[in-house]
Design a protein that fits this description.
There is one protein chain. By secondary structure, the protein is an alpha/beta fold. The protein is built from seven helices and ten strands. Helix 3 crosses helix 4 and helix 5 packs parallel to helix 6. The protein is globular. Keywords: ATP-binding, Cell membrane, Lipoprotein, Membrane, Nucleotide-binding, Translocase, Transport. GO terms for molecular function: ATP binding; ATP hydrolysis activity; transmembrane transporter activity. InterPro entries: AAA+_ATPase, ABC_transporter-like_ATP-bd, ABC_transporter-like_CS, ABC_transpr_LolD-like, MacB-like_ATP-bd, P-loop_NTPase. Belongs to the ABC transporter superfamily.
Length: 217
């Protein structure tokens, strides 16, 4: 479903990625692991079109994402790729429901439909009684679940997560790990996850180990 070919990324004279190939099938959970500075987050950002490669291509749904620009790229990203970050990036003045709805509103989906799906997702993720709470009224684990629901609101082809458990305690981290597995099983949701977590990585279908800007296994 997702194919990346010969991705490189240079910052001035520093080559961060050195010809990386990645293939991810629908319904897979793929983790990217490796030491700090190996290029994991850079690779994730290129796969998610948050940054552009110096060379190479990224394809999703038979679409060459590296050929898209401007509004066309932003629209495709919003509709087809979900994002989860270490820090939840929830809007503090919005409720949980409103935060989840934002990407759906941006996509132009009918507001009633977006709200209905947002409520369904929050209920599915165990937050049915927290929809009207603002971020400062939620625990860290609850905030991250809101962020997961937000990533899923447009029924994306793939969700990309950058250290999603890095800001959680061990209990909430384990619960989030299980949530990813449940979403894969229930919705055939595809995930690419950058992580240092030694419990999460082995739970994935496949691990990509990075070192010095390359995938070594």
């Amino acid at each position: 479903m997702l194919v990346a070919r010969n991705l490189t990324k240079n910052y001035s004279n520093l080559q961060v990625l050195k010809g990386v190939d990645v293939t991810v099938e629908k319904g897979e959970i793929v983790t990217i692991v490796g030491s700090s500075g190996a290029g994991k987050s850079t690779l994730l950002h290129l796969l998610g079109t948050l940054d552009t490669p110096s060379s190479g291509e990224v394809w999703l749904r038979d679409m060459n994402l590296t050929a898209l620009r401007g509004n066309a790229l932003a629209d495709f990203r919003n509709r087809h790729i979900g994002f989860i970050f270490q820090f939840h990036h929830l809007l503090p003045e919005f409720t949980a429901l409103e935060n989840v709805c934002v990407p759906g509103f941006i996509a132009g989906t009918r507001k009633a439909e977006v709200r209905k799906r947002a409520a369904f997702l929050l209920d599915t993720l165990g937050l049915g009684d927290r929809v009207d709470h603002k971020p400062n009224e939620l625990s860290g684990g609850e905030q991250q679940r809101v962020a997961v629901a937000r990533a899923l609101i447009n029924t994306p082809d793939i969700v990309m997560a950058d250290e999603p458990t890095g800001n959680l305690d061990s209990k909430n981290a384990r619960e989030l790990h299980q949530l990813f597995l449940d979403l894969r099983d229930q919705f055939r949701q595809t995930f690419i996850i950058v992580t240092h977590n030694e419990e999460l990585a082995p739970m994935s279908d496949r691990q990509l180990v990075m070192k010095d800007g390359k995938i070594i296994s």
